[in-house]
Amino acid sequence: MQHYGIIAWLAQYLNPVFLHIGLPGASAIAFLTAASVTTYAGLAVMLSMALTMREATILAIMMVLCHALPLECAVVDKVGSNPYKMGVLRILAAFLAAFLLDNVLPDMPQPFVTQHIAEAEHTLLDVIWLWLQSSVKMSVMIMTLIYALMVLQRVLDRYKVMTLLVSPLRPVMRFFGLPENAAYLWLVGNVLGISYGSAAMLDLEDSGKITKKEANEVNYHLIMNHSMLEDTMLFAACGISAVWILSTRMLFAFCLVWGRKGWKRYRM
Prior knowledge:
Blueprint: H1 6-18, H2 27-36, H3 39-46, H4 53-65, H5 69-79, H6 83-104, H7 124-158, H8 161-164, H9 170-176, H10 183-206, H11 212-222, H12 228-236, H13 242-267
């Protein structure tokens, strides 16, 4: 698509929107890919584009706030939340975060990808070969990362570490405006993510340890702030600052939960 100018053709229609958030129009393809499939797919598209580190940081944060919408909205629906409302909130948060970051991020002119494919200087076979090389390297990194996370999760479960962490996390729950008994659910969502942790979330509901109302409250936090370990490590391995990713996600989760509580009190 890049070699034959298809991305450039699509980008001309998206440029007016994305220019307002400090991104080239072509970056919309990466965002749409992540939103409809996964963060990994969106990152694969990012790696084929000529982006500065500043643009890559903004795009990465959009993607961690709004990825895998069909799958994750279906999961939160099972847990007891409105999937359409959750999807809209995540899309709005992604664009709001991009707009805010475009106004506060310092200039970072260094390239996100050190070796970018120049279409005019390469044949289609050259482009495919360079893409294959970079994709294999990225795939090895991703598989290594996921395997390490799976081992870590098994170790935590085996030695009941996650259960032991519930009590110390109660003050954190109060700070984020969440039910105190939702600490384990919050921990599962942050360590494993919404998709991987859905089974544990549903198990907590079935066992009566948490109600659907409480699960819904936690979901307002988790749609902004989940899979913190995996997503952060993935982009940090590519050179994007973990501080910007973590602080932005926690800020949006905090504001959404407390803003929702304030709105409900105002209506009452």
